[in-house]
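queue> pop job 88
queue> type: inverse folding (structure -> sequence)
queue> payload:
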């Protein structure tokens, strides 16, 4: 079976909000073996919505629409569905009663505008909404089942799980596996697994890139969950064997989470020293629940004086090499480890831009140091992009070097 998901709203087409509903719905449909063939975003325009619904009915077995069920004049999804079906809108008495009860339970008067939310196309079915005023709608358009849900995720998600999912068949199985990689570009990773990425294979293997993180997706389809799982695991294992330490995590894992788990398992601690990243590494780290068990703290030493006063970097070292240099990065890392009494430390110093660069030290030049009891290792990078992109890439690269260093140290201890 195939599905099309329509997200409705001028706020979406105008770039004021991001559609998160479609991704959530695609995942839920995949769990039932239903493949989503298209996400489409449509503004609050009656004619465009009706055309989108008719087109979707020709492409899919299931159509799910989110949004456009509010009480205002620009909420036109119910009208567009009636237009596509060639029927009139009628008031659903039970829905009107539930809407009135919603306001009464909260001691609030019901506006006449809310009455329009009880309108549904003739012959369609209203779907109860326990979290808001807008009922959903179920209808049949050509050979496709259409389900219309409110836009707010807090209403849409429980309505789908409670009222829509049980109506959908288990149409085989779709199993997904993801590997997250860091340290190589998307083209490099794709070359290593090129034969697995040939279109038309099952499982289907592909890559996506975001902020330096390359994710390899493995999607297996089969008649049974067991067969789909076996196929997905086989390809995922082959990908893992080819990419090795480029892979830092699977499925929903993040790089800070993986680093934290490694430090916690080794019963070791971390300190940070940041200049151009301005605390971004610390922000990523403290976004991990339980980080206090392994993160001692960090120093944002943006100025040269802060590097000297807080981290103990010798002024002569800065004078001789500059704040953005390998020796200063190493001294920052060693100073943070010493000051905070940590087993490990990472330090970053660089030129994030857009100004401040020179011929010798251009914008994007970053030095990253990882220090332990055995000393500091420094890595030089030239990152491209705007200021925020350079800073974020530097922060993630620092965490990745830490990940690899902790893993190497653990392997050395075990051997």
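queue> result:
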């Amino acid at each position: 079976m195939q599905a099309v998901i329509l997200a409705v709203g001028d706020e979406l087409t105008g770039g004021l909000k991001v559609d998160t509903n479609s991704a959530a719905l695609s995942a839920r449909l995949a769990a039932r073996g239903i493949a989503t063939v298209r996400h489409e975003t449509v503004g609050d325009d009656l004619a465009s919505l009706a055309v989108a619904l008719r087109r979707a009915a020709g492409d899919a077995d299931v159509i799910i629409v989110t949004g456009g069920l509010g009480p205002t004049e620009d909420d036109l999804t119910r009208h567009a569905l009636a237009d596509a079906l060639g029927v009139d809108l009628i008031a659903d008495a039970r829905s009107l009663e539930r809407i009135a009860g919603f306001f009464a339970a909260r001691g609030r008067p019901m506006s006449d505008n809310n009455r329009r939310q009880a309108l549904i196309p003739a012959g369609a079915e209203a779907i109860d909404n326990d979290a808001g005023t807008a009922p959903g709608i179920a209808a049949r358009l050509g050979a496709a089942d259409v389900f219309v849900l409110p836009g707010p995720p807090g209403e849409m998600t429980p309505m789908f799980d409670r009222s829509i999912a049980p109506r959908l068949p288990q149409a085989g199985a779709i199993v997904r596996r993801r590997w997250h990689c860091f340290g190589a570009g998307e083209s490099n990773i794709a070359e290593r697994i090129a034969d697995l990425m040939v279109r038309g294979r099952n499982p289907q293997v592909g890559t996506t890139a975001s902020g330096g993180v390359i994710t390899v997706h493995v999607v297996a389809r089969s008649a049974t969950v067991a067969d789909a799982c076996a196929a997905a695991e086989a390809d995922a294992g082959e990908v893992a064997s080819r990419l090795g330490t480029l892979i830092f995590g699977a499925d929903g894992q993040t790089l800070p989470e993986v680093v934290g788990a490694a430090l916690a398992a080794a019963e070791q601690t971390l300190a940070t020293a940041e200049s151009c990243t301005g605390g971004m590494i610390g922000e990523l780290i403290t976004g991990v629940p339980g980080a206090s068990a392994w993160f001692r703290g960090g120093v944002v030493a943006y100025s040269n004086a802060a590097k000297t006063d807080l981290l103990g970097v010798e002024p002569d070292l800065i004078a001789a090499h500059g704040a953005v240099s390998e020796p200063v990065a190493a001294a920052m890392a060693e100073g943070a480890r010493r000051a905070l009494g940590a087993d490990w430390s990472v330090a970053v110093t660089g030129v994030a831009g857009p100004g401040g660069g020179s011929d010798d030290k251009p914008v994007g030049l970053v030095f990253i140091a990882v220090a332990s009891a055995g000393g500091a290792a420094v890595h030089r990078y030239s990152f491209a992009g705007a200021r925020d992109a350079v800073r974020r890439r530097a922060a993630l690269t620092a965490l990745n070097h830490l990940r690899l260093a902790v893993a190497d140290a653990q392997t050395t201890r075990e051997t």
